Amino acid sequence: GDSVTQMEGPVTLSEEAFLTINCTYTATGYPSLFWYVQYPGEGLQLLLKATKADDKGSNKGFEATYRKETTSFHLEKGSVQVSDSAVYFCAPHTGGFKTIFGAGTRLFVKA
Amino acid sequence: EAGVAQSPRYKIIEKRQSVAFWCNPISGHATLYWYQQILGQGPKLLIQFQNNGVVDDSQLPKDRFSAERLKGVDSTLKIQPAKLEDSAVYLCASSDKGTANSPLHFGNGTRLTVT
């Protein structure tokens, strides 16, 4: 069945460090790909999305590229800030318009 | 625009009791979802509605869970009777079309503790 695998956390970085959170998926058909973020005390919210191969989604300095050949959608940011501390979820939107979620990766950024 | 509203925010019940959660989606959103998020895990889809019809309830434990979406707007999710393993955050989400490109908009969730 459809599934998604995310890098295990927690990930702890110093401010201004480079961030990569890996995400790979298996899905029937041709899913759209999303990253959602959950800041402390808040609900899940959309961070970025990509809807076709080689598309790059971007928002708030974060980027992720839809790699169909490797079924991956890795999240990157060149310079993290303390305010980026949150839990990040990779979420393919698969056949039947169902969104499945990875287990989440918790990021801590130290000042 | 007003976001997805959920209530209550917190609920503590004993096992074998019943509980109900309420969700009001963003106005005009046709698709409504209920997810269960157990601590340390990603959200798991319980049921998906398109307007007032069920699209997917394959992971809903139908012996104890039920859900309805009245008039294609508000929705309630009920658990009866509750078990200890039902302790989780119950998330409601909506999207405007439910198509592959439509992102989900989430409420703040209801945290359920079953003792």
Summarize this, please?
The complex is a heterodimer of chains A (111) and B (115). Chain A is mainly beta. In chain A, 0% of the residues lie in helices and 50% in strands.
Overview of this structure, please?
- The complex is a heterodimer of chains A (111) and B (115).
- Chain A has strands at residues 3-6, 11-14, 19-21, 23-26, 32-38, 45-50, 56-59, 62-65, 75-77, 86-94, 98-99, 105-110.
- Chain A has 111 residues and is mostly beta strands.
- In chain A, a hairpin with a 2-residue loop joins strand 7 and strand 8.
- Helix content of chain A is 0%, strand content 50%.
- Chain B contains no helices and eleven strands.
- Chain B is globular, with a radius of gyration of 13 Å.
- The model of chain B has no long low-confidence stretch (mean pLDDT 94).
- The interface between A and B is medium-sized, with 24 and 28 residues.
User: Which pair of chains forms the biggest interface, and how many residues does each contribute?
Assistant: A-B, 24 and 28 residues
Written as H for each helix and E for each strand, in order along the chain, the element string of chain A is EEEEEEEEEEEE
Structural category of chain B is: mainly beta
Query: How much strand of chain B?
Result: over 45%
Please state the average pLDDT score of chain B: 94
Major β-sheet annotation of chain A: 6 strands, mixed
Number of helices of chain B: 0
Oligomerization status of the protein chains = heterodimer
Helix content of chain B: under 10%
Shape of chain B: globular
Poorly predicted sequence stretches spanning 5 or more consecutive residues of chain B: none
β-strand amount of chain A: over 45%
Which stretches of chain A are poorly predicted, pLDDT < 50 over at least 5 residues? none
Helix % of chain A is under 10%
Radius of gyration of chain B: 13 Å
Number of strands of chain B: 11
**Helix/strand/pairing category of chain A:** mainly beta
Number of strand elements of chain A: 12
Mean pLDDT value of chain A: 93
Q: What is the element string of chain B, with H for helices and E for strands?
A: EEEEEEEEEEE
